[in-house]
Amino acid sequence: MIEPQQLMRLAIEKGRESIGAGQSPFACAIAKGDRVLAVEHNAVWRNTDPTAHAEINAIRHACRTLGAIFLEDCTVATTTEPCPMCMAALHWARVREVYYGAAIADAEAAGFNELQLAAADLLRIGKSGVKLHAGLLADECRALFAEWKAHGGRPY
Amino acid sequence: MIEPQQLMRLAIEKGRESIGAGQSPFACAIAKGDRVLAVEHNAVWRNTDPTAHAEINAIRHACRTLGAIFLEDCTVATTTEPCPMCMAALHWARVREVYYGAAIADAEAAGFNELQLAAADLLRIGKSGVKLHAGLLADECRALFAEWKAHGGRPY
To answer: Which terminus of chain B is more exposed, N or C, with fewer CB under 10 A?
Structure first.
């Protein structure tokens, strides 16, 4: 069983890779038991695709890996709180639990055009069974924004 | 300028194609002025990808067509009210307006594991500038569910 903190460290490392590749400072890792199914970063600019957030990319990769549309019993670590698109995608994928580091407010402060809806509120209002845990390695996740800014990153 | 009703008819036709291909009864069309940029259907089963909803597929296609991550001044017609994943994706893509036919409740009644959050509520709570119009050709859009059921469709 991979610990959430280990999984988040894989995501943070992938987030640094994203910044180095001129992409946005977000990354996401998905594991089932002791098997890592996906570690992906945001690729909106690279793919010319506004839906290519880290979580969406990781879900797609993990589902291809498993050959299934459901990621039951899977744990997700994502460097920033999922936006409503990604939180709803994680709900559709039936993941068990999601750990995040930085907050949507951090992404908004960095210039991203965030909807004003916390992931916890979407789950509560929407009556989802996905479990959410905030603030895992939050300082390290937030530090990705400064690194990205220093690298000349563009928000969208 | 393509009228929303014409655009919705393209989506409905694509929805029938989706059912015939063993996919889910959802389709979405996107236009900019008189140019149709994308007409796509849901491909969750075909692609083994829980994020491959009609709107996500259409956004990706339209962005590739334009070579841009923003779909400004674009009009969207989608056979069913966008789920929070798709409504947020349309917000990220900066589309101008979205017309839909059937409601999330219709999809839920058909067995889909919908989050309990109306598209209008997501936009309002989230403070999005996307304009939303409900009930365009709603009867024809709802009829897709019966056709899909008769075809042995599986919800997820």
So the answer is: N
> In this predicted model, what pLDDT tens digit does every residue of B58-80 receive, in sequence order?
999 999 999 999 999 999 999 99
The answer to whether A155 faces chain B, any CB pair under 8 Å, is: no
- Tokens 């009210």 identify what position? B81
User: So what's the ipTM on this one?
Assistant: 0.97
Find how far residue A143's CA is from the centre of its chain: 15
Are A85 and B85 a contacting pair at CB < 8 A?
Answer: yes
Q: What angle do CA B61, B65, B69 make, to 5 degrees?
A: 75
Q: For A44-91, what is each residue's pLDDT tens digit? A: 999 999 999 999 999 999 999 999 999 999 999 999 999 999 999 999
- Could you tell me which chain A residue has the CA closest to the CA of B65? A48
Total-model pTM: 0.98
User: What count of CB pairs under 8 Å joins A to B?
Assistant: 119
Sign of CA dihedral B9, B120, B83, A50: positive
